[in-house]
Amino acid sequence: GVREVDNRRDSESEESEEENPPEMNMIWIFSRRFQLSVPKLASRRQVVQELLSDLLQVSHNLFSDSFFPVLEPAIGVGSACEGWSPHKEEDVVYCMFVPLKPPRGHVFHLEPDPMGEMPQTSMRIRVELVCTCTGQQPDQNMLCFLHHSEEELKRNQVASLLHTLCTGPYLDGEKIALWFQTFVISAWSAVPQSRRYSMKVLPSCRSCKMKLTKASGRSLFVETVFSVQQGDSDIFLSSQPPEAQVPPSTTWLESYAVAEAKFFRHVAMRAPPHACHLKCLRLCARLLEGSDLPIYALKTTVMHLLTLIPLSEWQNKYLLMRVDDTMNYLHCCLEEKRLKHFFFDNEDMPQEISLPPAFQGAQPWNLFQHLAQDPAAHTEALKKFDDL
Question: What's a GO cellular component annotated to this UniProt protein (predicted)?
């Protein structure tokens, strides 16, 4: 109840700022036309964060003596967690990255994927057993996988990660997803959310998708994606490939989702109150429906503009100007068949975002490369954009 009142207050205070006709009137009409009244994204995201936190706590208790991957605290990523989802409220999916760390006696090695044919970097995660006999504090309750006989290990210790969730020596995204889905179903009654929601695990090969339904019939969709951090950077390898691609289950794709979420938090802390960048994103996403332009191209455009236009110029009263800037920037990039990926060789990158050293000076990844290689697709994309 309190949270809902706060949400109402937020939306009222935002609306009360918009009393400057006729331009603000225009924004008000746009907002209603595109169903952009301030969504309850933040409070529902909080529910999802608490749910994942509770589930992970149960998993730590359950798997503490096993050699499954160690599940780190979940990180909210994607448009819903960033606060600007282009979807209607009932279609929003809250995506959570759960980073995996190797269990005792194991290490992860990230290796380039020899079969990689994806536009972004694809890797494999090789699992290696390491000696636990020596070291700072030898684990008295654990036999060393390298220096105890197979017989002893079989009799006294559960299987290593190599024998459970790997294919050959490589971590398998499909096996991890199935393991976690099975865990969620069995652990559901142990979390407090089970008293408020019924839960159904939806089909998914590389992630865990849940549909939570309240007694009122209102639903909430959550997707848990498994990831492995690259060094100590904000770039992760993700178990979940884009929808159109189905690489082998031991292929993990480089993902920038955590760095993007961090960038939006960085902007939120420095932007004026009720800044319009998220509204701008939602509005442009609605305008671009039917253009075939990927939402990721729009998001990249707005991220570039947030570093090019001072944050003081993103006040609510400038919304239509920023929408105009965004559409013009996108149009120019389309004409030139070139939209630079935000995280490669970008001098305007906020310092608190940690990138692998290879990203500095790297050849910028062009998100419109496919249009540069296919003149017919380029002509069609420009035509659809002009029709808007």
Answer: membrane
Phi, psi dihedral angles at 189 (to 5 degrees): -65, -15
What is the Cα–Cα distance from 52 to 73, expressed in whole angstroms?
Answer: 8
* Domain 271-387, CATH number (from 1.10.10.10, 1.10.1410.40, 3.30.1360.120, 2.60.40.10): 1.10.1410.40
Q: Where in the chain is the domain with CATH 1.10.1410.40?
A: 271-387
Residues 115 and 41: their CA atoms lie apart, in Å, by: 39
- Using omega within 30 degrees of 0 as the cis cutoff, is the peptide bond preceding 102 cis? no
CATH architecture of the domain covering 34-255? 2-Layer Sandwich (3.30)
CA atoms in the 13 A half-sphere facing the CB of 6: 8
Residue type, 148: H
Q: How far from 308 is each of 241, 278, 329, CA to CA, in Å?
A: 31, 16, 11
Q: Mean pLDDT across the stretch 41-64? A: 92
Domain with CATH 3.30.460.90 in the chain: 34-255
Q: What is the pLDDT of residues 255-292, one digit of tens each?
A: 999 999 999 999 999 999 889 999 899 889 888 887 88
Q: Residue with structure tokens 């952009």? A: 36
202, 193 Cβ separation under 8 angstroms: no
- The confidence score (pLDDT) of residue 128 equals 94
> How far apart (Å, rounded) are the C-alpha atoms in residues 56 and 77?
17
Q: Are 258 and 77 in contact (CB under 8 A)?
A: yes
Taking only the tens place, the pLDDT of each residue in 56-114 is: 999 999 998 888 999 999 999 999 999 888 887 788 999 999 999 999 888 999 998 77
